Amino acid sequence: MAWQHCMMDIFLRIAHDLEQVLEGLNEEELHHQPGPTSNSIGWLAWHLTRSHDRNISELASQEQLWIMEGWYARFNRAPDPAETGVGHSAAEAAAFKAPNSRVLLDYHHAVMERIRHYVLRTLSEEDLDREVDSPTLRQTATVQRRLVGIISEGLQHVGQAAYGRGLLKGHGWLGR
């Protein structure tokens, strides 16, 4: 198996786990905060997907799907390429309301298609050492470092969302 397929498998695992976390949640559950300054499942799913979109779009030198496909309007947000939730205060995160689980997943699926194309059809081993500037993060890093960061944060955020769902639904919500 090529390393690109291994990397893609990790992204697909994050997407699969996110689908399981969001499955059947109503809007109250989606926006429930376990504590007064905790992030909701809806915010975590949005932030995870926005971060994937921003990072992969920057690596591929493409406009973010958030703006290009008008996802910002479906979330009643501004078409700001830098707004991914990074730097949100507790009050801003609490005020965030996702339309519903279906829209969150539809956006995530659109981003996953871009990731699939980038990782499997565009990305080469030589690209991994290429340095890329991020206008939104105001930093420069190699493609490899950015991809590892995207995966690491994706795993963390889907795990946080799964924990939040476990607090709502109790032991065994995942059928285990």
Entry summary:
By secondary structure, the chain is mainly α. The chain has eight helices and two strands, in the order H-H-H-H-H-H-H-E-E-H. It has helices at 3-22, 27-31, 41-59, 65-68, 71-74, 90-95, 101-122, 143-169; strands spanning 131-134, 139-142.
Task: List the SSEs and their pairings.
Elements: H1 3-22, H2 27-31, H3 41-59, H4 65-68, H5 71-74, H6 90-95, H7 101-122, E1 131-134, E2 139-142, H8 143-169
Antiparallel strand pairs: 1-2
Helix pairs in contact: 1-7, 1-8, 3-7, 3-8
Descriptive notes:
The structure is a single chain. With 176 residues, this protein is mostly helical. It contains 8 helices and 2 strands; from the N terminus they run αααααααββα. It has one domain (3-78, 87-169): Up-down Bundle (Four Helix Bundle (Hemerythrin (Met), subunit A)), CATH 1.20.120. It has a two-stranded antiparallel sheet. A hairpin with a 4-residue loop joins strand 1 (131-134) and strand 2. Helix 1 packs antiparallel against helix 7 (101-122) and helix 3 (41-59) packs parallel to helix 7 (101-122).
Task: List the main descriptive attributes of the protein structure presented here.
Four Helix Bundle (Hemerythrin (Met), subunit A); mainly alpha; globular; two-stranded antiparallel sheet; 2 strands; 8 helices; 61% helix; 176 residues
Distance, first to last CA: 30 Å
Count of separate DSSP helical elements: 8
The share of residues in extended strands comes to under 5%
Full CATH superfamily name: dinb family like domain
Going by helix content, strand content and strand pairing, the class is: mainly alpha
User: Which bin fits the share of residues in helices?
Assistant: 55-70%
Predict the CATH topology: Four Helix Bundle (Hemerythrin (Met), subunit A)
Average pLDDT, all residues: 94
CATH architecture: Up-down Bundle
Walk across the major sheet and give the strand order: 1-2
How can the largest sheet be summarized? Answer: 2 strands, antiparallel
- The ordered string of helix (H) and strand (E) elements is HHHHHHHEEH
| Rg, nearest Å | 16 Å
Number of strands: 2
Give the uncertain stretches in residue-range form. Answer: none
CATH class: Mainly Alpha
